[in-house]
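ARCHIVE CARD
SHELF: 3
SLOT: left
DATA:
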Amino acid sequence: MNELWKANVGGILLIPAVSALCYLALPEEIKHRTPAAPRRSDDWVDPDPRPEASRGKIELGKWLFRRNCSTCHGAEGVGGIANQNYIKDTFPVLRTLAERMKICDEEENKAIIAYLSEGVDLEKIDPAPCPKYNVFLAQYRAIRDVIRKGSKAGKKDPNGPNPQDMPTWGGQVSDHEIDSVIAYLLTLQVWEKDEGSAEPEESSKPLRRGERVPDTRLVNQDGKEFRLSDLRGSGLVVSFIYTNCDVASMCPMAADKLVEVQKAMRGEEVRFLLISFDPQRDTAEKMREFAARHSIDTSNFWLATGPAEEVGSLAKSLNNHYRQAKPGLYDHTIVVALVDRDGVLRDDFFGTGWKAEEMVAALRGVRK
């Protein structure tokens, strides 16, 4: 025991000796260097600080996008990042937002960016900076609403995992900040392309404005078989629903708003068509019940359905997407297409945030 104690003491005494030798071996500049002061938490510098107000709204929008959106939508909104089990496979491309908002050319885009950068209320601009400004406003409201409230991503496989939803920004950002993000995204638009819709994000391309809507076999609420081409000769408003939809802001609201448009255009050459993508459940009787619930005058406003494959192809061509979440329930989008008397797509309205008078004005322009 005594020998073991002596050995341990000897080892302990060696430590300062070895340390002294190591110190003597150090270069002189290291021996005499002043130790750094302990770093305080308030010394930390953000490598990507929020831009100063003097740098403008676009710089703020770029910073907010980089911090909150680029992980999903890619640097500068290029898209192409996979979203597991999402209807469209990848998160949406955002660098073509100007096209989605129906801005027609580069000059219109510059004017709107300037208004957003200057904090101008886009609802009060007079005269309007572009001929179809009412259509742009509808898209603008819908995009702001999605940023505030978020949106649920439709599932490709009803039994598969949930895709990542668009989260709500809620009260985290102001209207000023939302507008700054929109202004930044509008600057990313490339205008060398021909006028048209944004590049599609899936293999089946939606129609561009100016392209003819494909013909489709359908049957209306009275059991009458017809083809979409039979409705040519007048303006046509067409969208897609299912009568079992119980989300107040989706199918029911779309029907009610189109009834407003129908009433405003009474006596004019225009037809309305809501096509169900649930043909198994939406029988003629169910469609008549839906029409009665929403006070639809079926003299020029039909509900219809048809073979699932043909309805699906037509819906996709008009940028409507849907997938069955479980029997009787669907995840879907709503896009209302405006078609001219020759069956050519002229305009569309996304969602249900648009105003009836905006669609009336756009539809009257389509019919000229």
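SLOT: right
DATA:
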Amino acid sequence: MTEETSLKKTVKDYLDLRGIFNYALLQGLGSYPGLPDRGMHFLGRVHYLEIKAKKGKLSPNQLVFQEHCRMDVVEYHVIRSLEDIQAIVG
């Protein structure tokens, strides 16, 4: 299992343990390029989570998606560790 795959599982398990509604966002035919890995609903807001290994970089499409979120004041987070998600949800 890669570092990124392991972190994706850790984030999902942590959110599930905390009872926070979360879901995978899967790339496929018709999906928006750069779609992040997970979505979650927390304190009345939708958050998008792009989960990356420590040295992983956002692709050009992911940067465009991140910018759309910024312009629309939608929460977008790059998660590189368990501590990153803990800092958001406690």
